[in-house]
């Protein structure tokens, strides 16, 4: 894909252009001319598996490359890195996110979500993103951070992360520019990263000075030892705390912000969702006993994740020469893997631009390749918070819709906008009306 064709299309509509490149290639590996950078676009599910899972030892996150070079300034070395530091962080944090442990948190999480929804001012016009972030923070802070971080501080961190995600766009698009060269967004990045540190570093230092028996993330990291028996240093604890906070909140509140306009645009889906929650939850408080029966709710979430994978871009750099389906990949090459693109391609999905939750109904004859739908990544670096997301998001949707009907005032569906993570291109305003008043 020569630069004279790629660059104008990407300038007009970067996400649409990448999907168009993927559709034109019909699953072949495509090299895109971007001036100084000529990455390989990998969209075929089998090729995605090759990169993310089967040959993950070759295809690495590059701390100076596309996307990772920009976000590493916030997350640093730790669970978002590679090599021994990543292995240590993964070893320490993985037990906190096993299905068994997350399931044990459900009752506490459900109670916090219900309380947060109870505080929603019914009848007022609300900013969906702000309201969803408040509910999500209330849901995860207690179960993941104990008393180390307040809900108000968690909301401030989410707002800072949102600003940081937007601030790094220029550096994502121009990864070859050194950090020493000023670029748009740098000041916003520094200011918001400092705000996050001002909140989290004191919590980390208190936990290290006075270790307790808590099983929250900060306590666990503060007690942890490396494989050779050394204490984890303060900076790595800070890095992993910031990383896990982002992982536990960002997908949930961003995806739920996208959800409400889709329900307005698709009244049949909204009616089916309301009906399921009325039948399963009724006037009760949503809890673990309801989750297994919220099957349509899960289908809606899967379809939202297909259309809006928040971690939309997964760049990798080849650490050695390789071949993908006959295409030579030289050492040092950048590869762009994107769930957003693969999950919207005509070759793998029927009418992929349409919002159709029923495509995730259980039909064994229509099983897809596992990397046709991979909103949480794949291989060793697959997001460890996937199970937590589904429990959290189902409980939030059930808590909101068992008590309210949602009226969206924003016309149409805001277009997604690429940044460090996928975000809504416009503000979503809504009003929650008590169910009995509708």
Concise summary:
It is built from 18 helices and twelve strands. The protein is of the alpha+beta class and 438 residues long.
Task: Please tell me about this protein's structure.
By secondary structure, this protein is α+β, with helices and mostly antiparallel strands. It contains 18 helices and twelve strands. The strands form four sheets. Strands 1-2-8-5-3 form a five-stranded mixed sheet. Strands 4-12-9 form a three-stranded antiparallel sheet. α13 packs across α18.
Q: What characteristics describe this protein?
A:
single chain, 438 residues, alpha+beta, five-stranded mixed beta sheet, three-stranded antiparallel beta sheet, 18 helices, 12 strands, globular
End-to-end separation in angstroms reads 53 Å
**Helix fraction bin:** 40-55%
Average pLDDT level: 88
Structural class: alpha+beta
Order of helices and strands: HHEEHEHHHHEHHHHHHHHHEEEEHHEEEE
Specify the number of helices.
18
Structural Rg: 22 Å
Strand order of the largest sheet: 1-2-8-5-3
Principal-axes geometry comes out as globular
Number of strands: 12
Uncertain spans, ≥5 residues at pLDDT below 50? none
Largest sheet: 5 strands, mixed
Strand portion: 5-15%
